[in-house]
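Proteins fold reproducibly. Take a tokenised chain:

. . .
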Amino acid sequence: MSTEVSFAVPGGSLAALDHGGTGRPVLLVHGTGHNAAAWGAVADRLLPGHRVVAVDLRGHGHSTAVSETAEQYWRDLAVVVEALGWERPLLVGHSTGGYAVTAVTAAGLVEPAAVGIVDGLVLDDRPTAAKALAETRSARTAEDLRRAFGYGLRLDSGPRDAWIEEQVSRVPTDWLNAGADPELVRAVAARSFTAEPAADGCFVRLPTIEEVAATTEAPQDAAVHPSVDVYDLVTCPITIVLPDQGFYARRRSEVAGIAAGRDRRELVDLAGGHNVVMTHPAAVAAVIRDLAESV
């Protein structure tokens, strides 16, 4: 059983699920649109030999803090590690969380024993990345995100519960969740709404479009930027998990180049789509355990 915990950060708090355990500490970081519950099946497989905490990023899950700048969400991870009193933890991130654990390490705010990146890479140079980030802030992309994932939906308790159950009903054929435990999908969907209703009595599906936009306004001259040069700043071991049907499968040669760019880096190929954290948790947990043993 996990325990709800929270951490004070500028502008509010970060919520997290503390799974307990002993041994090498592992911080699990979700991607955009998910939350700490997404790691439930992975965390179960890391216990009891690891101390495991999964965090809700700003603007996600039950965290009350929202992003005002593009760096806050990954800088917060250093606050969490310090508050837990951890030294040399494993930082493991999926999707956007993969960049978050990379960035906080590149900035020197945390000195992890190793970083695990699960289909969460940045492969473009700064000008190309800037163009892609700008596109994510377009009105068209915002509408696509609302339609596909319900970001920013405001629903009272009845429609909220119906929306959650609709996500569960789609599991067998869903392009992201097919193969996942329906109860895990239910937990993630439920946690994606604010813990308390807003003044109008509605629960808000997080993240909002404004949260997504804020995290993509990274200036090109930032010391740590969501572009391929960030890996030059990371000296600790890195393991990259690359699903064969994930977001970066078609760019495997570039991913392999990152893995080959420094000693103590490894590329692990897995079968599955982008959401392997939920659809193939045993395989992901095995990679994390291997990474922990290697350091």
Remarks:
- The beta strands are 3-9, 12-20, 24-29, 50-55, 90-94, 114-118, 154-155, 203-204, 238-245, 265-273.
- The first strand starts at residue 3 and ends at 9.
- The chain has one domain: 3-294.
